[in-house]
Structures are given as structure tokens and as C-alpha cells.
Amino acid sequence: MKVSLDQFKNDFHSSDYLKTYNEIIMPIRATNLSAGYDFYSPSEYLLKSGESIKIPTGIRVKMQDNEWLGIYIRSSIGFKYNVRPKNSVGIIDSDYINAKNEGHIWVALYNHGEEDLIIKKGEPFAQGIFQKYLLVENDEPKEIHRNGGIGSTNS
Question: Is 9 helix (H, G, I), strand (E, B) or coil?
Fold first, then answer.
């Protein structure tokens, strides 16, 4: 689902936020056997060689308690341009939807390649794969509820 218009306006930082928000493409799987849901770029971005960018997707996800969403680069971009997520794999926890930023999923990319990459508006650039996880015996998390957004579970 989308984040609220207010949250997107806060994160997108552009005067055309309303048009961009209304044109967000929801993640979908390309085929019936695809594992990943393609994330589409809400705007055009230039990712120069040796640089990084952060893309606000406008998307948030609701999951079961024992699930997480992995955010990966689409293989065509990784192979052709040597572009990778800055954090290798984006890990979206099931309680991220309750964060102060409404669980707004951002994708940070780094261009390790020699060529600049233009990510066009509406182009799929990343993919999300839902995964289940297990817990160990006597599991006792430090916190019961999430308060912050990206990187908020650091101690």
C-alpha cells in the first residue's frame, strides 16, 4: 500500500509531489513464478559512477509477525551497471509499518560501475521478496515496539 500523501510530501521534497504520488506504481510480480515484487521508480534519477542515491518509493507493506521483506536490486541493473543496494539487502521488518515514517520504504543504491545509470520514472529498479523467519528458544528482544524509522533498532 502507499504511505499517506503527507508522509510522501515530507519525504519526496519536490513541488510535483502530488502528481508523483498519484502516479506511483504498486509493486507487482512480473510472472506467476517470480519470487520478487518489482518496485518502480516514482521519478527519474541519475546515479553517477561512484555515487549513491536514496529513492523514496512511496510504498509501505503489512506482513505477518514472522515475516520480513528483503529488498534487492533487479538483476538486469546489477549485471549491466554494477549497481548494488548500499546496505547489500534492505531488511524490512514486519513492525516497520508502525514506524514514525509510516514504514515508508526507501531504496539506497550505490553505483560501483564505470557508467552512469539513469533510472527512469516508472521503471522497475528493485525487487522485494517476502520471507519467513524462525526464533530461538528464550528469545527476549530488547524492545517490544518500534518507535523510529530506518535504522531505529540500533543500540
Answer: helix
145 falls within a domain:
no
Full residue range of the structural domain in which residue 10 is found: 5-132
**pTM for the structure as a whole:** 0.88
Q: Give the model's pLDDT for residue 142.
A: 74
Residue 154 resides in a domain: no
| Residue 109 near residue 127 (C-beta atoms within 8 A) | no
Q: Is the dihedral of CA 71, 72, 73, 76 positive or negative?
A: negative
CATH code of the domain covering residue 127: 2.70.40.10
Residue 42: the pLDDT is 97
pLDDT at 32 over 70: yes
The more confident residue out of 155 and 2 is 2
Q: Which of 90, 92, 130 is nearest to 110 (CA)?
A: 90
Tell whether the model's pLDDT for residue 91 goes beyond 90: yes
H/E segment holding residue 41? none
In a domain, 32, yes or no: yes
Structural domain count, the chain: 1
Q: Strand locations in the chain, DSSP E?
A: 37-40, 45-47, 52-56, 67-73, 83-85, 90-93, 106-111, 117-119, 124-132
